[in-house]
Amino acid sequence: MYEDHDRDRDRDRDRDLVRGESTGVSPTLIGLIVVAILAVVFIVQNQTKTEVEFLFWTLNTDVWVAIAIALALGAVLGWLAMQMVRRRRR
């Protein structure tokens, strides 16, 4: 009974390999791990406090927090701009 299951599993794996599909670690997973490690290194290296001024607000925060907020705002603004462009094309 188990031999049939093992034989079917091996046949499916061989079929996937013939189609060019990998049974190893996903490149996406490797990329996410690398990005996570780089993010941790960035955070550890940018623990210095800084003063951020915007309009009438002043905020004392870590450098990495200020940069992360700027990146997040940039991503949101970029996404909103793309949505506007797509709506104009319709």
What can you see in these coordinates?
The protein has three helices and two strands. It is an alpha+beta fold and 90 residues long. The protein folds into two domains: 1-45, no CATH class; 48-90. It has a two-stranded antiparallel sheet with strand order 1-2. Strand 1 and strand 2 (57-62) form a beta hairpin. The longest helix has 27 residues, at 63-89.
In short:
The protein has 3 helices and 2 strands. It is of the alpha+beta class and 90 residues long. It has a two-stranded antiparallel ribbon with strand order 1-2.
Keyword list:
90 residues; alpha+beta; 2 domains; two-stranded antiparallel ribbon; 2 strands; elongated
List the helices and strands and how they pair.
Elements: H1 2-18, H2 27-45, E1 49-54, E2 57-62, H3 63-89
Antiparallel strand pairs: 1-2
Provide the helix percentage: over 70%
Q: What do the pLDDT scores average to?
A: 82
Distance between the termini: 58 Å
Strand content: 5-15%
Question: What oligomeric state do the depicted chains represent?
Answer: single chain
What is the CA-based Rg, rounded? 24 Å
Low-confidence stretches: none
Largest sheet: 2 strands, antiparallel
Number of extended strands: 2
H/I helix tally: 3
**Per the principal axes of the C-alpha atoms, what is the gross shape?**
elongated
| Secondary-structure class | alpha+beta
Structurally, the number of domains stands at 2
Order of helices and strands: HHEEH
Cross-sheet strand order for the largest sheet:
1-2
